[in-house]
Specification:
The protein is of the alpha+beta class. The protein has two domains: about 10-190, Serine Threonine Protein Phosphatase 5, Tetratricopeptide repeat, CATH 1.25.40.10; about 260-345, Sporulation related repeat (Alpha-Beta Plaits), CATH 3.30.70. The protein is built from 16 helices and five strands. The protein has helices at about 10-15, 25-30, 35-45, 55-60, 65-80, 85-100, 105-115, 125-135, 140-150, 155-170, 175-185, 195-205, 210-225, 230-255, 275-285, 320-330, and strands at about 265-275, 295-300, 305-315, 335-340, 345. A five-stranded antiparallel β-sheet has the order 2-3-1-4-5. The chain is globular, with a radius of gyration of 24 Å.
Length: about 350
């Protein structure tokens, strides 16, 4: 099962070796202490003599809403008079906000030009969020290209190799995943080593090397019994158990929903769609007893990526399907749409 993305972009900013904003030490200290009102006052008092872009960077960090911060950072990015490092740092801080908001396409449009900008010589902190954004959008080929562009000397090299291993694991290439995880462990910072070891354990089991996987866990229990690696492996085991339970529900549901009389209609009700089969199984496990004949329909998008759609019912009359969709939406408190099987989704009245 694919691992969730829990290492967020703010870590990247801490790894960057941009020139320090020494002119605003007082603002920085107050900001780190969470004393934002005082930091704003210090910014107003100490803005004179700041290097170009410094004031806007700090002002953006002290805004009360993400939209205000994005506006200020966007002005920096578009200001060709500013030094390259200020524009790039502004773009990365914008990317941090956009990633947190799930605006992956906008993040890609923002950072993609930096890849071919010879003036900035894009660091791994540009390639990494780009790779994660492409992956979140289901474009795994482009994600791999971005992540593989991080150089061995870059501070985020280990993190990029970890995500390449995670993608290889997701696609079933267990040998490649193990090679990436090994490279990640050799070059990674301590905070992510736990996830790397958990990834290796997962790849070993998926490759059928259960003895090696068990030995990895035994070594961890002997050398680091309270380690984050063991906690992560235990978490993955819990997820695996939940997925197994969901598959058992899915087997019963599929048996019912694939009966010939259940698929005569052209329309169906759709409750959700996921690129991650594990998430689809979690949904099925949660709502399988509340929605009659709930099933997973596996389809592919225009890039050949799998999409798992949660659907129920079969209707010849689209008006009847829409009526049922409204009733289910009211009962469950979630969006329910009418899907035309094998074609597209129909809008609700």
């Amino acid at each position: 099962m694919r691992m969730r993305l829990v290492i967020m972009i703010p870590i990247l900013l801490a790894l960057l070796s941009w020139p320090a904003l020494a002119a605003f030490n007082a603002v920085s200290d107050l900001f780190q202490e969470g004393r934002y009102d005082e930091a704003m006052e210090a910014l107003a008092d100490g803005g004179d003599g700041a290097r170009p872009g410094e004031e806007a960077l700090w002002r953006s960090r002290l805004q009360s809403t993400p939209d205000q911060a994005l506006d200020l950072l966007d002005q920096n990015v578009k200001n060709g008079q500013l030094p390259a490092f200020v524009r790039v740092r502004s773009a990365l801080e914008m990317a941090d906000i956009l990633f947190a908001r799930g605006e992956f396409e906008r993040l890609i449009r923002l950072l993609d030009p930096l890849v071919n900008d010879t003036e900035t010589d894009a660091p791994g902190a540009v390639y990494l969020p780009l790779g994660l954004a492409y992956r979140a959008g289901g474009n795994l080929q482009q994600a791999r290209e971005m992540l593989a562009s991080v150089r061995p000397s870059d501070p985020v090299f280990g993190l990029a190799r970890f995500y390449l291993g995670d993608i290889a694991l997701q696609q079933g290439d267990h040998s490649l995943a193990l090679r990436y995880f090994q490279a990640a462990e050799d070059g990674a910072a301590t905070p992510i080593k736990a996830r790397i070891q958990a990834g290796r354990w997962q790849a070993l089991r998926a490759a059928g090397r259960n003895d090696d996987a068990a030995q990895l866990v035994t070594n961890l229990r002997n050398t680091a019994p309270g380690s984050l690696s063991l906690l992560e492996i235990n978490r993955l085991l819990r997820v695996e158990e939940e997925a197994l339970a969901a598959r058992q529900v899915a087997t019963v549901v599929d048996t019912i929903s694939t009966a010939p009389e259940a698929r005569d209609g052209r329309y169906s009700l759709q409750y959700g769609a996921f690129h991650d089969r594990g998430l689809a199984l979690e949904f099925l496990n949660r709502y399988g007893r509340q929605i009659d004949n709930l099933r997973i329909d596996q389809v592919t998008d225009d890039r050949g990526q799998y999409i798992y759609k949660l659907r129920s019912g079969s209707f010849v009359n689209p008006a009847l399907a829409r009526t049922q969709a409204r009733q289910m939406q009211d009962r469950l408190g979630m969006d329910v749409i009418v899907a035309e099987l094998g074609v597209a989704n129909l809008p609700r009245d």
